[in-house]
Amino acid sequence: MDISEIINIAWTGVTNNKLRSVLTMLGVIIGVAAVIMVISVSAGTEATIAAQIQGLGTNLLFVSQNFTAGGPRNQTTETQNSLYYPDAAAIATIPGITGVETERNASETIKFGGNTVDSVPVIGTTADFPTVRSSPIGEGRFLSQTDLDQKNTVAVLGSTLAQNLFGSTDPIDQKVIVGNVQLTVIGVLAPRGVVGGTDYDARIYLPITTVFQRFTPSQFARVIGDRINTIVVQVADQSQMNDVILQIQLLLAQRHNLSVDTLPFTVRTQSDIITTQTATTSAFGTLLAAVAAVSLVVGGIGIMNIMLVSVTERTREIGVRQAIGATPNDIRWQFLAEALMLSLTGGLLGVLVGVGGSLIFNATAIATTVIVPSSILLAFASAAAVGIFFGYYPANTAAQLDPIEALHYE
After folding, report:
1. What residues have CB less than 8 Å from 260, skipping those under 6 apart?
2. Chain-centroid distance, C-alpha 263
3. How far apart are CA 363 and CA 371, in angstroms?
4. Tens of pLDDT, residue by residue, the chain (410 residues)
5. Neighbours of 290 (CB within 10 A)
6. In what order do the strands lie in the sheet with 265-269?
7. Which strand (E) or helix (H) includes residue 265?
């Protein structure tokens, strides 16, 4: 019996019970679609994380404190294990560095005339912020080193905040009340939008030294002083990253009277952060893909179950075919082809559903998705493997039927 005849007989067997065939394929359709959509969501999330981190700026290093629990705590160990604003200033002197930025955050109500905006993020930062964070100035100027040294009461507004407070009025040189402090607006940043979950346009930027002095709660000022959590360093050349990291570690070790090996600070590149984030996302995506793959197995069990029922229902037909010359191998191939046809058709429909669902998710902003071609091949190949694996037992059962008993089966 040639291939075309096997396919024709298998197709007839599948289409004779259309509803049952569709219901049998449902598990495979769901499994294939789920695998494709889960992988596309995982890939989209990884791409989003990478874009957000790259959107913070280029050639960046992040110097942060390691948070450890336990052990004796005293003023000396606190000083050794914490980052301070002067550390950032010292790092800025290292050759190969084009900018250093650090922040101290607060939240205040801002007023101008009759306009009030509540819970505005107040960002104490440094003069290199526009360069390091890729946030160009739109109007006026940004904070200068003189503003930091003299702790000037000046501010730069995000574009959305400026619009909310001033409308069509020119904000430059206007006075705003931040908490209970009057500040002079010296600039407005160009619109940037949301990057990494942060709305840069809805914030107000002050000299970090002014925030230390005016916006640190008095009950915490004595304890935290000019302590900071993270220093962001921009390196001139990607090839200098490792050298600059070593220089930062040596400098911090010297400033905190520690050895490099015991340094309680971490210096990470953007690639390190992306790798850490995507590793977590990939692990979660793998788990979800494994759960989705269970649907394929369930679909395969459904195929095996229906094929066993089909063998029982068509026992007499099998006997007639054997009587007119069909070999056990012909019978085996017939039912195996039916199982494979069910799984491949279900796989094809699952691919269409999975790709369509991924595109809909992306278009409706339910989730950012990136369709991975290899996931389509993987899902389709898995569907074929499921059909062969779970279809072989029913096909072999049919091939081993005794022709005489099959002809007498009612």
Report:
1. 249, 250, 253
2. 30
3. 13
4. 567 776 777 677 677 777 878 887 888 888 888 888 888 887 787 777 666 665 555 688 889 888 654 444 455 566 677 889 999 999 999 999 999 999 888 899 999 988 999 999 999 999 999 988 888 999 999 999 999 999 999 999 999 999 999 998 999 999 999 999 999 999 999 998 877 678 889 999 999 999 998 887 765 555 567 888 889 999 888 888 889 999 999 999 999 888 888 888 888 887 766 666 666 666 766 776 677 677 778 778 888 888 888 777 777 777 777 777 777 887 888 878 888 888 888 888 888 998 898 888 888 877 778 888 887 888 878 888 888 888 888 888 877 776 666 665 55
5. 11
6. 97-102, 230-235, 60-65, 265-269
7. strand 265-269
Angle at 9 between CA 7 and CA 11, to 5 degrees: 65
Q: Which residues of 95-114 are buried (b: 16+ CB within 10 A; e: fewer)?
A: eebebbbbbbebebebbbee
Number of Cβ within a 10 Å radius of residue 233: 27
- Token duo for residue 333: 């191939």
Burial of 273 (0-12, 13-18, 19+ CB in 10 A): middle
The DSSP bridge partners found for residue 65 are 265
State both tokens at 217: 């709660």
> What's 190's DSSP letter?
P
- Look up the pTM and report it: 0.61
> Quick one: angle between helices 3-15 and 18-55, nearest 10?
100
Strand pairing partners for 116?
A: 111
3-class secondary structure, 268 = strand
Q: Collapsing DSSP states into helix, strand and coil, what is residue 151? A: coil
Distance in angstroms (rounded) separating the CA atoms of residues 7 and 148? 80
Q: Are 109 and 120 in contact (CB under 8 A)?
A: yes
Both tokens of 382, joined, read: 């898995």
CA 348 to chain centre: 28
